[in-house]
């Protein structure tokens, strides 16, 4: 099965050369030692708004061949926890393979995940990460796509443990990516204040604290569930620290600060 792009030409260029040139312009050219990361949080808006933040993370870490990418469900299609275990995803420059062995290993351990192509068919939150990671890592890059829409706490723990144990069994480096934008459509000052509270919880690797702040402060972080699962899995794999690599809002690009979306790039190691 080849999954076709849902947002090529909208969120990122559909022309291969334009896409490659844009990504190249965003990457840090300095020769610095790459950090070994267990997980990260990347934004998923149109590249003009958020790819600079994602690139700040991806430029700074030693990318493994396999990424498990967790995204929220914006479309409402599919199951509450949907994984694809086989196939390829079409990108403007070619296809990217799903790591079927890793995907099947995660699926067989989970009581919540279901094989589900429908949840992924039109969802952009995983798709927009692929050109960036592929251009940096190259043709060896494989991934496991998981879309999460349920806020059931037992699901968080189940899927996080399924990912962590599958990675441990594989005995290879795997990067867990939580795809999420931050506050949506609030004035700049308020958006930054709310985002700071959510970011603090992620940096503390406090999954429960992140959920509590999201609910209490009404923070419209669309991918907080992927972030919670990523934090839990990363801690099980030995992660102890996190850092904020970059933060900006759509207002920093458009100049309109009356209603912005926040974007944070976080490295967990």
UniProtKB/TrEMBL annotation:
Q: Which domain of life is it from?
A: Bacteria
Q: Which Pfam families match?
A: Memo
Query: What CDD domains does the annotation carry?
Result: MEMO_like
HAMAP family (UniProt xref): MEMO1
Q: List, alphabetically, the PANTHER family matched.
A: PROTEIN MEMO1 (PTHR11060)
| Similarity comment | Belongs to the MEMO1 family.
Q: What is this protein called?
A: MEMO1 family protein BU251_03830
